Amino acid sequence: MIGAGGQNLSASTANSRTTVRLRPATAQLCIGKENPVELGELKVTRYESSDAVATITLDRPERLNAWTGRMNTEYRSLLARAAADVSVRVIVVTGAGRGFCAGADTRALEGHVERGAYDPGTGPGLESPGYGVRPEFDADFAYHFGIPKPVIAAVNGPAAGVGFALACYCDLRFAAAGAKLTTAHGRLGLPAEFGLSWLLPRLVGLTRAADLLLSSRVVLAEAAAEIGLVNAVTPAGTLMSTVGEYARMLATEVSPASLAATKLQLYTDLHRDSATSARDADERLRAMMTGPDFAEGVAALTGRRPPRFADPEGTGGPRGEAR
Known about the structure:
Blueprint: E1 45-50, E2 53-58, H1 69-84, E3 90-95, H2 106-115, E4 151-155, E5 159-160, H3 162-169, E6 172-176, E7 180-182, H4 196-204, H5 206-215, E8 219-220, H6 221-226, E9 232-234, H7 239-253, H8 256-268, H9 274-288, H10 292-303
Parallel strand pairs: 2-3, 3-4, 4-6, 5-7, 6-9
Antiparallel strand pairs: 1-2, 7-8
Helix pairs in contact: 4-5
């Protein structure tokens, strides 16, 4: 996990949301799947949910949201919460203040040097969102591929090292104008991290990935958009409203069953051939044409009205508790 410098960018936040916020802290936290982080216990993240969109905010603005073991634990717990809540259809990840995530906290990096070994700062009982879907997804950050909902990165400022990796493992990336992105590892004498040597070539092509990974140079959001690393660049002050509008479009106009199936196809098909993909698509098509979302989609199309897709069947509220 790498640290890097940042720049002065601001980001607006959406209105009419329930927010939980406590003072940042860097203490180690060990909370497993059977004892998840409760919202009132959050110290370095925030969680907001409104209009079927959950927003996870990395919340150490005084450190440009540098990554810590505590942040890792809270983030994974909140991602699991959003994935389990049937009322949430889209997840947005962003940073508080002027940074997205400037990489690993420099104090943690100094600790690694002093100990002569890597210490993630977490215990053995981390939440495992997205695990168990496919073995290829069962690893750090690759677990995003197993989340059955779109995850959108709103890169409001510097994204370096682990912050860069986090953004890359989201399904879509929107960035504030002038935001700086860097893999950063090469400047610290480390290898490419978190499977980026596998992922980046699939996002931007081998030659461009080689440039970003070998040089660890900083690229601005505008250049990242030109090579397809980010979907769109907006003024810093309108980033969150732009992302919110796109997220709500997905949440209201697209079937949640289709979102889940299509996302799974996208990342599964990276590991198989075209014929297998086509056969799987045919099987999914036949099964989903018997479902309620297909019936509602056809009714909306013929009735010339917006679709009203119901929440997927489940036990209800966050983390599956009955509502």
